[in-house]
Amino acid sequence: MSATTLQIPRTRRAFAFTRFELADSLRSKWLGSSLAMYGLLFVVFVALGLRESSILGFTGISRVVLNVTNGVLVAVPLLVLLATCQIVVRARRNGLLEMALVQPARREEWFFGVLASRAAVLIGPLVLMFVGAAVVGGFTGGEDGLAAMTARCLAISTALAWAFLGIGLFVSTVAKTAERAIVYALVVWVTVTALHDFALVGLLLNMRLPPRAVFALAALNPSEAARIGILTGVDAELSVLGPVGFWIANTLGATKALFIAVAWPAFLGTVGVLLAARNVRKGDAIG
Questions:
Q1: Range of 144's domain?
Q2: For the chain, percent helix, then strand, then coil, each to nearest 5?
Q3: Is residue 5 part of a domain?
Q4: Is residue 266 within 8 Å of residue 166, measured between CB atoms?
Q5: How confident is the model at residue 1 (pLDDT cuts 50, 70, 90)?
Q6: Is 151 within a domain?
Q7: What is the model's pTM?
Q8: How far apart, in Å, do the first and last CA atoms of the chain sit?
């Protein structure tokens, strides 16, 4: 290892890994799958939203944004988990991580490349979709509050995608095989999309809990926290949630509910990324 090589800044080495991983992602099916899913959601809901009917006073492109966000809350966690849950375990088993560490680089730099490339591939199209919705809304005459609603939905959707990006990377560092990683990812997705709700409903059928406790238990699920944040932008009174909605509207308010909907998933994703980085740093290079 030459002295010139050792003098290469860590940021340059990290971005070199980012370009390598991004090129690998562009060759894989995940970029095409994410673009196809986002495109399908956008096209379908544009066709529905531009009709004359309205939902809770929202018409046109604002209805598109709301409907797309609801679709994102279910589809994006699964897509992100499946796209990230095998990265580290496969790199260990096929020797890619060992080959990367033969270079004058640290594990943290390789992991940064993985994180940055997957974030670009999975979250980038999501940002483009919402920006595209805002642009379409501008060309179709614009609507009052469209920019604020689009920014709100984009922030919530991005935070949710980041949450499952961190969870998926963490799963990829603890799974022993790629097959187990997929099983773990599916268990996480089923838990946050179905089992958590069933468990909460079962608890409420057997116990009488105060609204604040119900909200806390529901918001532990990042998908539910995101859904509540979206609902506060549609109906400030949250009448559809009954007593819990009344408590949220009068105690938290739309601003604090939005903060929780963004901050909690973002926090979970960051914790997942940090734990995954620690496991990569301390774990074996060969699986």
A1: 12-282
A2: 85, 0, 15
A3: no
A4: no
A5: very low
A6: yes
A7: 0.81
A8: 26
